Amino acid sequence: MTAGGSVTSGLREAGLLHSAALIGGRWVDADDGGSFGVVDPANGQELGRVARCGPAETRRAIEAAEAAQPAWRARTAKERARILRAWADLLSAHEDDLARLLTLEQGKPLAESRAEIAYGAAFFEWFGEQAKRLDGEVVPPHHADKRVLVTREPVGVTGGITPWNFPVAMPARKAAPALAAGCAMVLKPAEQTPLSALAVAELGVRAGLPPGVFNVVTGDAEDAPLIGEELTGNPTVRKVGFTGSTAVGKLLMAQCAPQVTRISLELGGNAPFIVFDDADLEAAIAGALICKFRNSGQTCISANRILVQDRIHDDFVDGLVKAASELPVGNGLDPDTRVGPLIDRQGYEKVADHVADARERGADVLLGGESHALGGTFWQPTVLSGVDETMAMSHDETFGPVAGVRRFRTEDEAITVANSTRYGLASYFYARDVARVWRVSEALEFGIVGVNTGLISTEIAPFGGYKESGLGREGSQHGIDDWVELKYHCLGEIE
């Protein structure tokens, strides 16, 4: 590929770097030879150029998946599991290269990139094991001369559309359950971060994936809607998995409707982070710090509304300001960096707008609140107090290193405020009273509840949300359910 020296010079194995799409086991350029640039958000420099594909290339990828589907489905679960496990091992073996590549195109600190590689590998390992557990049922018959069986079968050719904030983990969370179930897939990674997805695909080929079982089609921002329309509208595709904004998720869902194509959606969030007055204050501050500032706040499960009870409010805010002020900001390749750049100018402008709106409506900026001295898309770690429901950051994801704190008096008030959102993905609270832990956990209308922890993601638990945060679950024993069909067999004339 045409790549800057900053990419190739730091990789132990240049073979992980691809500029072409993967279709039917072959690395191919766009039909018209077009390409688009991938930019390092830390300095604005172009890292390289990647094939700019569109509907025609996507159709061929779907056809390749369709051709590969019968043989992949026919393989034993143990054979598919062996390949997925090999894929996981290869991700682990190439952790340093993958982490560097991820940091270059996404911006997050190297330590977080390494953690993401391990997280992605864990999904291939987990679902390889789950492939061998796709059990059916023998149901007590309704007549003496009949037998009733229920089996789980792969849904067929699938599509995956993944975001830029976790460019290794999200393709893994889509591909691992689909392939484990016996489905072939066409993946469209985000235009900001295609290099990581292509590197993951390269390792899948090395792990032994047959041609066409896993395909990657790359395209830029203008191409994405056209590729999405092909994935949702092509009758060969039986299921689409998407992670991204609620607005785009709704559009894809509407596009799936005419064909009744199944879709799972992991969409936006507006996570409350509640600190009750019986909480371990130091633990709550540490939890808020990592939950809010990890990946520069660019996660769908970031603490977006921090609610702190009256009696400890001031102490919590003072502690959070001190802790956030000590976070080193810089290029993610610097091992000391804890907060990297925002992904692009659009993300930067949203953060700036949210802070300006909060200021205008009466919030106090206690730390940061402005562009960082590094310039570009770097933003200072920011803490605001006096945030209320009139402010934009109380309703929409800020997706930046900005912590807005709101005071509350009673448990009922905290629950009411926490639930007053159209989203329902992640929520958090800190408390030590056992009765309160149960009451609040049950009252929160969110698919994920973190109790006395700010880190909740794991392959062994179901990840997904209520309300407008999506449909379906990823991870856990339930994560494979969206990629299979139930078939009922009724056998007659047994007597």
UniProtKB/TrEMBL annotation:
<dbReference type="GO" id="GO:0005829">
    <property type="term" value="C:cytosol"/>
</dbReference>
<keyword id="KW-0560">Oxidoreductase</keyword>
<dbReference type="InterPro" id="IPR050740">
    <property type="entry name" value="Aldehyde_DH_Superfamily"/>
</dbReference>
<dbReference type="Pfam" id="PF00171">
    <property type="entry name" value="Aldedh"/>
</dbReference>
<dbReference type="InterPro" id="IPR010102">
    <property type="entry name" value="Succ_semiAld_DH"/>
</dbReference>
<dbReference type="InterPro" id="IPR029510">
    <property type="entry name" value="Ald_DH_CS_GLU"/>
</dbReference>
<dbReference type="GO" id="GO:0004777">
    <property type="term" value="F:succinate-semialdehyde dehydrogenase (NAD+) activity"/>
</dbReference>
<dbReference type="GO" id="GO:0009450">
    <property type="term" value="P:gamma-aminobutyric acid catabolic process"/>
</dbReference>
<protein>
    <submittedName>
        <fullName>NAD-dependent succinate-semialdehyde dehydrogenase</fullName>
    </submittedName>
</protein>
<comment type="similarity">
    <text>Belongs to the aldehyde dehydrogenase family.</text>
</comment>
<feature type="domain" description="Aldehyde dehydrogenase">
    <location>
        <begin position="27"/>
        <end position="487"/>
    </location>
</feature>
<dbReference type="InterPro" id="IPR016162">
    <property type="entry name" value="Ald_DH_N"/>
</dbReference>
<feature type="active site">
    <location>
        <position position="266"/>
    </location>
</feature>
<dbReference type="InterPro" id="IPR016163">
    <property type="entry name" value="Ald_DH_C"/>
</dbReference>
<dbReference type="InterPro" id="IPR016161">
    <property type="entry name" value="Ald_DH/histidinol_DH"/>
</dbReference>
<dbReference type="InterPro" id="IPR015590">
    <property type="entry name" value="Aldehyde_DH_dom"/>
</dbReference>
